[in-house]
């Protein structure tokens, strides 16, 4: 009998959830509760190609939303009975969590203690965990950390060239995010290459609204572009990625911006949106770019140029490359971004097969390079499956003890 895991991703005002089949990663039922804490909280559940909307109590928070979700899941008794565990996405695990873990009081305290490094995410993740424990007391709860996959990085990759004291006393270092996605596509890439992951050297580019790139040497993450927070590195939908570290102080001291205005500007109005003055949606920018919109063209060019530079530099970290992998909404679907980025890497022996590149979109996985090129693979990610797998394994193992 196939088993299922309820995967929960709790944000400050939302809960994204899915019941995932452990054997094949299929999402059997999924849902989204939004605008929690306001008087128009909504809940939508999708199952078997139909979508049902429910209203939630006014000012409903995680606890009552999860209790409502639990009640609604009673309508899907057959499925609910096969749920063996709850897997929680937790954004920041600091240096404490190098892998997924069964949740107990000590784990919750450690997640709380890491909250200062992800103030927008960890408190919401924790509130989701506590509420889910109340709503589903009979099930084991497992925390799966976005940062854990990167705990194999060596010190020379994760330390900034700042006074060492800041690392020792305040934990200021690179942590990395999108771990479940990079883990999923690296495992899949090794399968497609027909070789063990443990001997695979890869560069995995997760390009969605948030973007990150990871160098993998012999199956282990060796470097990654997101840092202390998910702001560093590549150009993203609304986040700036790398910039001269003096720019934020310049904006504060010379332009008179407040610290929170600078923070908002870098996180919410930069990236593709900031440059194009139009949108963070890559699809729209491609469309407008074709129509001759110069800022849309510029935004996409900066996106690809930064990405190409990162790919080139990560060849230092990965060692002799087995494959470059594209994933995430943009990486999986935008043949334009892939083609333009690879064109910038022609001197490093990358070239794209245009027909294959056009074919690998909308859920198709496969190779897209020309014969003499480094291998380039498109792989649709499935972060929920990674979380479901880890939650099921830990729950099973705890039952066997
Ligand atoms: P994600 O955060 O992984 O859901 O990815 C969201 C991003 O993927 C947005 O910028 C979308 O515009 C982009 N995206 C989705 N589908 C396409 C597509 N067919 N072509 C280009 N970009 C796409």
Describe the structure.
Helix 1 (62-73) crosses helix 4 (122-135), helix 7 packs across helix 16 (383-400) and helix 11 (282-290) packs across helix 12 (294-318). The protein has an 8-stranded mixed β-sheet, sandwiched between helices. The protein is built from 16 helices and 14 strands. With 401 residues, the protein is α/β, with parallel strands linked by helices. It has 2 domains: 4-145, ATPase, nucleotide binding domain (Nucleotidyltransferase, domain 5), CATH 3.30.420; 194-383, Nucleotidyltransferase, domain 5, CATH 3.30.420.40. It starts with a strand and ends with a helix. Helix content is 40%, strand content 19%. The structure holds adenosine monophosphate. Residues 208-209, 237, 281-283, 286, 328-330, 333-334 line the site of adenosine monophosphate (AMP). The active site is at residue 146. Substrate binds at residue 89. It catalyses: acetate + ATP = acetyl phosphate + ADP. Its cofactor is Mg(2+); Mn(2+). Pathway: Metabolic intermediate biosynthesis; acetyl-CoA biosynthesis; acetyl-CoA from acetate: step 1/2.
Mind sketching the topology for me?
Blueprint (H helix, E strand, L loop, with lengths): L3 E7 L4 E7 L5 E8 L7 E6 L2 E6 L6 H12 L3 H4 L2 E8 L10 E2 L2 H9 L8 H14 L4 E6 L9 H4 L5 H7 L8 H15 L8 E6 L3 E7 L2 E5 L21 H8 L5 H10 L2 H6 L5 H9 L3 H25 L4 E5 H6 L1 H9 L10 H6 L6 E2 L8 E3 L4 H18 L1
Parallel strand pairs: 1-6, 6-8, 9-12, 12-14
Antiparallel strand pairs: 1-2, 2-3, 3-4, 4-5, 7-8, 9-10, 10-11, 13-14
Helix pairs in contact: 1-4, 7-16, 11-12, 12-14
The structure holds adenosine monophosphate.
